[in-house]
Write a structure and sequence with these properties.
The complex is a heterodimer of chains A (360) and B (268). Chain A contains twelve helices and twelve strands. Chain A is of the alpha/beta class and 360 residues long. Chain A has a domain of 237 residues: Rossmann fold, CATH 3.40.50.300. Classes of the chains: A alpha/beta (360), B alpha/beta (268).
């Protein structure tokens, strides 16, 4: 069995989703090609955190990025904004946003893009300045990108606060972060990202540490923004449930996209062994299974899990990154790295099992 | 009513109120827990389920003695803690260990793995060789190889750190382990590993668990008894099967998931 060249078998994710708003242009909003990022670890050694990432986001599309901790999803988010820490190096690739390569944009132009056209919602909840009223913090973003009278901006912030689901905007505007609950602070941080009506919002774990009710509200908010303003979202999460909103999802493992396709297909018929195993693990935290296993008592139960752990990114390994945890490992998996194989126009999977076009 | 050995841990009418406000201000009383009673049998897993702010963690703090309840009694193997002197109470308290909500934050970043695990024994004044040996055994128990004993917490992954926190809680050979959101923040593929480990340890060491969670589905999978808490009170108690019968649990469970909450909101 031979390894296919990337050009032959690279996935074509385009055309995957039907629910794209009608007003979207044909071409893609964001096009990431062969993006590789390495981190310096120790002296002279480099760990490759992202390995040749390829994907696109169309205007008004919600793309989910599913990956567990250490899979590189936050690095991907930061590299799209060119906000990687100094130890990181973008080794290869291009990030095209509206036909501009973000990787070679100068600082001034980049500043114009950040916040107003692409914005990011950070994973950590405490990104707010504790000494500033939250309303002013949202206005600060607006002020950085637009020139209009303060009263105007204030009105704009008020209407955004109402859109974010706050009822007493007056009080919220004047509050300091510590006077708000975690969910409210999160919504303010989201407000900062949305105030300029960007075309693309990168939401890194937008619902982490929130209870299910608040996360539901936030996801609803995203859906509404997409509907009303045609905002595209890159929704990053470790939890398949959070991605329910997405049209299309990409699954990341150890710095690679291992599978991609329309969300409902991906979750009903997973192909990659990793995704299969991961979705099985959901029975623990998500669905109650009501068979004999419950009646026999919990003491003798085994919960589904994926044995082992993700490989160390600083150690290079010639084979498939999932081979050490894979249930269907073959001989080639240890020595060759699989490429993304298109198994249907909308779907691709990085696994040798699908090399011959057969659907195991 | 109960023979002293029937329950390993019992709480009777526990209450804890926090008061906010300086002397010149109007006082604000927050009844964190009110009139909470439960009993835990050996080998039993009790899940305390509730939304954030319902008093789950306060209850855990009271049980391990990090907070003093305003009223009510805590009985460990039939002996009331109130009736004991200070040193006796401390030795009884060793039977109940807590694994903190944020285990990564609960490990001292400047101590090596073995130091973290052996620290409880150090406080007990055991000689070094013995300490090391039993700490290494605990580490092996939770599936962390002894060759990693000199690593610092940040060199471990999230799941491994959780294992380390479990190992530390086990060093004093407790009878009850309180698991405060142990599955939170762990990867989906690792949650099952930790759950399996906890079940194995329960069998091997005869532990009882109090599992604190806001995820009813998870509790239903993991626990023998579920106690549902709301605003500081236990409002409902029963086995997962009973819960299922009474509430048609699947619907209650799906309601606790973001996608369902989402559709509920968009419908409203």
């Amino acid at each position: 069995m031979e390894v296919l060249t990337p050009n032959q078998k690279r996935a074509k994710f385009e055309g995957a989703n039907q629910s794209r708003p009608a007003f979207s242009a044909e071409d893609d909003l964001l096009r990431v090609r062969d993006l590789s990022v390495t981190f310096q670890v120790g002296s002279g050694r480099e760990a490759s955190i992202l390995k040749r990432i390829n994907f696109t986001v169309a205007p008004g599309e919600i793309v989910g990025l599913l990956g567990e901790s250490g899979s590189g999803k936050t690095t991907l988010a930061l590299s799209l904004m060119r906000m990687l820490p100094p130890v990181a190096r973008t080794a290869d690739g291009s990030i095209e946003f509206h036909d501009r390569n973000l990787l070679i944009l100068d600082a001034r132009r980049l500043r114009e893009v950040r916040g107003s056209e692409i914005s990011i919602i950070y994973q950590d909840s405490d990104v707010l300045n504790p000494l500033m009223r939250v309303g002013d913090q949202i206005m600060e973003v607006l002020r950085a990108h637009k020139k209009s009278p303060s009263a105007h901006m204030r009105d704009e912030v008020y209407s955004l606060l109402a859109e974010l689901g706050f009822t007493d905007c007056e009080r919220i505007f004047r509050s300091y972060p510590h006077q708000l609950s975690g969910g409210q602070r999160r919504r303010i941080a989201i407000g900062q990202a949305l105030i300029c009506r960007p075309r693309l919002v990168i939401a890194d774990e937008p619902t982490a540490w929130l209870d299910s009710n608040t996360s539901g509200e936030i996801l609803t908010l995203f859906a509404r923004f997409r509907r009303d303003y045609g905002t595209a979202f890159l929704l990053i999460s470790h939890d398949p449930e959070t991605l329910a909103l997405a049209d299309r999802a990409l699954v990341m493992y150890a710095g690679e996209i291992v599978e991609g396709g329309p969300l409902n297909e991906l979750f009903t018929e997973p192909k990659h062994p990793y995704l299969k195993a991961l979705l099985q693990c959901r029975t623990f935290a998500g669905e109650l299974d009501t068979g004999e296993s419950r009646i026999s008592g919990n003491r003798h139960r085994r919960f589904p899990s994926i044995p082992g752990q993700a490989p160390d990114p600083s150690a290079s390994f010639p084979g498939c990154c999932f081979s050490n945890r894979c249930a269907d490992r073959m001989e080639t998996c240890d020595s060759h790295r699989p490429e993304l194989i298109a198994i249907s126009p909308a779907r691709a999977v990085r696994c040798f099992k699908y090399l011959d076009g057969e659907r195991a | 009513m109960n023979s002293p050995s029937e329950f390993v841990l019992e709480a009777r009418n526990l209450a804890k109120t926090y008061t906010q406000g300086k002397w010149w201000q109007k006082k604000f009383h927050c009844h964190a827990i009110e009139n909470v009673s439960f009993a835990l049998r050996p080998h039993e897993t009790l899940a305390l389920v509730g939304e954030s702010g319902c008093g789950k963690t306060t209850l855990a703090m009271c049980l391990v003695g990090l907070e003093t309840p305003d009223s009510g009694e805590i009985l460990v193997e039939g002996t009331s803690l109130q009736s004991l002197g200070k040193s006796e109470r401390a030795s009884v308290r060793r039977e109940i260990q807590l694994i903190f909500q944020d285990s990564a934050g609960a490990l001292n970043p400047r101590m090596s793995a073995i130091e973290i695990v052996e620290e409880p024994l150090l406080l007990r004044g055991q000689p070094r060789a013995e300490r090391r040996e039993s700490a290494e055994r605990r580490m092996e128990d939770v599936g962390i190889s002894a060759k990693w004993k000199h690593r610092l917490p940040h060199e471990f992954s999230g799941g491994q750190r959780q294992r380390l926190a479990i190992a530390r809680a086990l060093t004093l050979k407790p009878k009850v382990l309180i698991l405060d959101e142990v599955f939170e923040g762990l990867d989906l593929s690792i949650q099952g590993q930790i759950a399996n480990l906890l079940i194995d340890l329960q069998q091997a060491h005869g532990l009882s668990y109090i599992c604190i969670s806001h995820n009813l589905a998870l509790a239903a999978q993991f626990a023998d008894t579920i106690a549902l808490m709301d605003r500081g009170r236990i409002v409902e108690k029963g086995s997962p099967e009973e819960f299922q019968r009474r509430h048609s649990l699947p619907s209650a469970l799906t309601a606790s998931r973001p996608e369902a909450a989402m559709s509920a909101h968009s419908g409203a």
